[in-house]
C-alpha cells in the first residue's frame, strides 16, 4: 500500500541554505555539542546538502504525478552507519511510550531510507531510527521514502537526530564523531574541530574514546553512564599494554558473571580498583542514566552533590524549595519526638 507524502516532516531539522548573494549571518560561538553539525557538513559538502534540499523540492513538485510512500519490511532495513546509540534505549520508558503511540495511532511521519550501498535488496535509515525499531517491535511494515543519498547527507541527518535528542552520552558522542573521520566526511580532526567550533584537542580527546574495546563496553553494562572522567580512565587503561590485558580479562569475567552487578562495581573491576562501598555513595540518575545528584557519606559529614549540566536545574529547584523542606523536616522531627 502506498500513500502520498510530504518530505518536510522528516527534513525539517536540516539546515537551510542562504539565498544566492546573501552574506552568511554572524553567529555566536556555542559550546559543543550544541553546534549543528549538519550545518558544518553543509559547509564541508555544500553540493550534498543542496542535493538533499533539491530532493525535497522534487518530491513536492511530483506529488501530482503519484510519488508515493513505500511500506518496507523493517527486517530488510539497517540503521545508518553514522548512528551509534546503545540499544538499551529500547528498554527506556520513553521508547515504550513511543511504541504504544505508534500502535494506537499508526506511523504518522514516514522514514527516509537509501538503498544499501553494498547489499542488494536492503536499505539504510537516514531519518527515522526510532520508527524502524518501533515497527520491528510491533511487527508492522515501515512507511518510508527510498532515495539515493550521499555519505555527507547521511552523516548530517544522523547528527541532526542526535542533536534533538536528550541524554546522548559521552561515549555515544565520541563513537559517532569518530565515524565522521573514519568514513571521510571530514578529512581531518582539525576540519571537524573547525566545523564544531571547538579546539582540535577537544575533538582528539573525544574521538579517542572510540579506542576503548567493545568488550569492555559490553562488560560495563549500560555504558551510557560513563562520564568524561570514566572514559578517560578507561582510555588510559586501554593504552597501557599490561592494564589493557588485565581489563580485557576482567571484561570476560564480568560478561560471564552476575548480570545484576551495578555500573560502578563493573567500572572498578575493569580498572583494577576496589569496588565502592554501596553505603559510601548513593546516586540518583535520570532515564538516560546520567547522574543528577550523589549523596556522599563520610565519618563527620554527609553531603549531596549535584552534577554539573544535567543536575544544575535540579539543584536550583531544590535550593528554591529548601526553606519549605527545612520547615517540613522540623514538623516531621517534632512528631517523631
Describe the structure.
By secondary structure, the chain is of the alpha/beta class. It has three domains: 8-211, Conserved hypothetical protein from pyrococcus furiosus pfu- 392566-001, ParB domain (Alpha-Beta Complex), CATH 3.90.1530; 213-276, no CATH class; 282-337, no CATH class. The chain contains 14 helices and eight strands. The strands form two sheets. The protein has a five-stranded mixed β-sheet with strand order 1-5-3-4-2. Helix 4 packs across helix 5 (129-138). It is globular, with a radius of gyration of 24 Å. 28% of the residues are buried. Residues 1-35 have low confidence and may be disordered.
Q: Runs with pLDDT <50, length 5+?
A: 1-35
The CATH architecture of the largest domain would be Alpha-Beta Complex
How many strand segments?
Answer: 8
Largest sheet: 5 strands, mixed
Question: Within the largest sheet, what's the order of strands?
Answer: 1-5-3-4-2
List keywords for this structure.
337 residues, alpha/beta, Conserved hypothetical protein from pyrococcus furiosus pfu- 392566-001, ParB domain, 3 domains, 5-stranded mixed beta sheet, 14 helices, 48% helix, 11% strand, globular
Amino acid at each position: 500500500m502506498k500513500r502520498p507524502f510530504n518530505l518536510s516532516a522528516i527534513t525539517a531539522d536540516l539546515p537551510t541554505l542562504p539565498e544566492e548573494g546573501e552574506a552568511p549571518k554572524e553567529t555566536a560561538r556555542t559550546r559543543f555539542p550544541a553546534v549543528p553539525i549538519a550545518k558544518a557538513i553543509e559547509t564541508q559538502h555544500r553540493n550534498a546538502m543542496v542535493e538533499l534540499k533539491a530532493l525535497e523540492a522534487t518530491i513536492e513538485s511530483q506529488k501530482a504525478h503519484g510519488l508515493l510512500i513505500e511500506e518496507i519490511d523493517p527486517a530488510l532495513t539497517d540503521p545508518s552507519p553514522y548512528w551509534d546509540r546503545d540499544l538499551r534505549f529500547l528498554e527506556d520508558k520513553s521508547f515504550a511510550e513511543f511504541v504504544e503511540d505508534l500502535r494506537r495511532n499508526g506511523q504518522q511521519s514516514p522514514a527516509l531510507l537509501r538503498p544499501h550501498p553494498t547489499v542488494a535488496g536492503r536499505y539504510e535509515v537516514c531519518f527515522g531510527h526510532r520508527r524502524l525499531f518501533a515497527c520491528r517491535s510491533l511487527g508492522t511494515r515501515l512507511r518510508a521514502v527510498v532515495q539515493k543519498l550521499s555519505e555527507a547527507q547521511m552523516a548530517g541527518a544522523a547528527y541532526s537526530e542526535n542533536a534533538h535528542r536528550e541524554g546522548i552520552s559521552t561515549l555515544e558522542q565520541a563513537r559517532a564523531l569518530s565515524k565522521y573521520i573514519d568514513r571521510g566526511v571530514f578529512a581531518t580532526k582539525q576540519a571537524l574541530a573547525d566545523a564544531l567550533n571547538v579546539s582540535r584537542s577537544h575533538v582528539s580527546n573525544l574521538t579517542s574514546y572510540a579506542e576503548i574495546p567493545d568488550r569492555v563496553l559490553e562488560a560495563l553494562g549500560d555504558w551510557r553512564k560513563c562520564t568524561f572522567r570514566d572514559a578517560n580512565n578507561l582510555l588510559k587503561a586501554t593504552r597501557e599494554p599490561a592494564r589493557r590485558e588485565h581489563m580485557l580479562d576482567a571484561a570476560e569475567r564480568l560478561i560471564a558473571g552476575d548480570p545484576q552487578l551495578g555500573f560502578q562495581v563493573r567500572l572498578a573491576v575493569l580498572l583494577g580498583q576496589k569496588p565502592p562501598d554501596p553505603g559510601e555513595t548513593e546516586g540518583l540518575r535520570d532515564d538516560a542514566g546520567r547522574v543528577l545528584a550523589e549523596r556522599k557519606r563520610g565519618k563527620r559529614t554527609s553531603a549531596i552533590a549535584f552534577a554539573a549540566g544535567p543536575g544544575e536545574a535540579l539543584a536550583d529547584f531544590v535550593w528554591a524549595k529548601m526553606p519549605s523542606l527545612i520547615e517540613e523536616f522540623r514538623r516531621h522531627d517534632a512528631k517523631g519526638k
